[in-house]
Amino acid sequence: MGASQTALPQRVVTRFAPSPTGFLHIGGARTALFNYLFARAHGGEFRLRIEDTDRARSTEPAIAAILDGLGWLDFDIDGDIVYQFARAGRHADVAHQLLAAGHAYRCYATPAELEAMREAQRAARLPMRYDGRWRDRTDWPNDLPYVIRLKAPRDGGVTIVDLVQGPVTVANAELDDMVLLRSDGTPTYMLAVVVDDHDMAVTHVIRGDDHLNNAFRQLALIHAMAGIEPGWQAPAYAHIPLIHGADGAKLSKRHGALGVDAYRDDMGLLPEAVENYLLRLGWGHGDDEFITRAEAIGWFGLDGVGRSPARFDLKKLQSVNGHYLRLADDARLVALISPRLVTGLARNIDAADHDILQRSMAELKKRANNLNDLADSAHFLLRSRPIPVDAAAMKLLALAPQGLLALARAEFAALALWSAPALEAAARSMADTLAVKLGQVAQPLRAAVTGAAQSPGLFDVMAILGRDEILGRIDDAQTLMEGQLP
RNA sequence: GGUCCCUUCGUCUAGCGGUCUAGGACGUCGCCCUUUCACGGCGAAAACACGGGUUCGAUUCCCGUAGGGAUCACCA
């Protein structure tokens, strides 16, 4: 079957190689995660290479977004970041070495000519491949531009023992002679990756399975170089399936192909939740659902990665996030929602607000699955009086037992100790006095105190907000209800 | 269309020839807890794409069919 791969190298080096033409999307984040985990699991290096050879589409902001995203996810990068464009000279050198050694050749076919060739192949229903028309020619028109193409083997086949896909064989006849160096002297992606991976001593190429077909061509290039420069050998490959949208189609913006910044800022997710979700997407460890970074490093293996594309499920992501939210440190969550509250409140968070948030957080975080909902649910705590009362709460107030608010105001004002248990005891005794269930007392009070029909434990909220504020809010509700009377 | 890859509940998955009356999670529904909403607990419905083999025995192995995906640039 021709070329095969060498045994597993001792020292592991993986790399994440995004092209900076947009944000770091969720699929890229998963590829980065797998590379990161694999490197750490083997005590190896995780490197970053920015594939910026497409000068027209590569941007500085995109590079910043990628770095920002990786930082947020806390994937520490080893060594210097490699910028591919800066290595164009080295790439061209390799192409010329190949040319000199007879492993590559000049092709003078014009783009128009190639297009015509493909058109003819399309019409004849033949596979569309470069036909090798300049492969053996030497009658070069020296004043015309040419590209350098790899003189790939035509017989036999190549087998890649992919760490995820298993052995995959392709006949060399299926592959054509790819362009290495463009007519303007710049390297193509195919050349650049191979040279960079070699020069960076990458041992394991873990990437999306959209690159699987490329791997065969890249292997041909590596084998050609192996005969010229010592030390060239094929890396191990692992092509992981792409993530699909909820409808099974390619992931689009509509269902989650967003930058990780959107997951952080717009959706209010925690990085550890995104990481855990991404890890479990296409990979599993028994029945384990929540896996720490340390466990992931201990357990992760390429052989456990599924071979079929997984669908992206936002509901589950939210649920996983809710789990991590409940686990998260209260102070951290207060810090995370504060900016969101500032926007909603149109004022800054002061020390008193901070204290209220900190004391409420343990209860608040049980009721939210993301930072946005968490901030929303904390909003009522910090609002200045009179707080807005929503429709459901209005209804509760309207249905309140006669004289409840006035009674409650008096009882609470007279309370010796302002604590949750004392407040609850007072409310229970009021219910007895009025001969109603506790709920008929608590619900209208909740409406008055929180402006909503649902909230964290009423008496905890009251204890945290303090007597003055609560009495004030009850007064406001009474005023409000008086205004509602016909 | 050629080539390559894939196929367990709606979704993510466990399963690596008998332990499967197919397990877990999200979602859905019901019950419990309870001052509301959550959290938490308990429970229910829900899958081995289809057809052939191989085997004493297939969800697990092989081959077809169907369906899905990837890729076929002087883009990465």
Structural write-up:
- The protein has about 475 residues and is mainly α.
- The chain contains 19 helices and twelve strands.
- Helix content is about 50%, strand content about 10%.
- It is elongated and about 105 Å long.
- The relative contact order is 0.09.
- Residues about 1-5 have low confidence and may be disordered.
Q: Brief overview, please?
A:
Strand 9, helix 6 (212-226) and strand 10 form a beta-alpha-beta unit. 48% of the residues lie in helices and 10% in strands.
* Biggest beta sheet summary: 3 strands, parallel
- Determine the N-to-C terminus distance: 91 Å
Strands across the major sheet, in which order? 1-2-3
Q: What Rg, in angstroms, do the CA atoms define?
A: 32 Å
| Tally of DSSP helical segments | 19
Query: What overall geometry do the principal axes of the alpha carbons give?
Result: elongated
- Report strand %: 5-15%
Total beta strand runs: 12
Low-pLDDT runs of 5+ residues are 1-6
Mean pLDDT score:
91
**Given the helix and strand composition, which structural class is it?**
mainly alpha
Helix-residue proportion = 40-55%
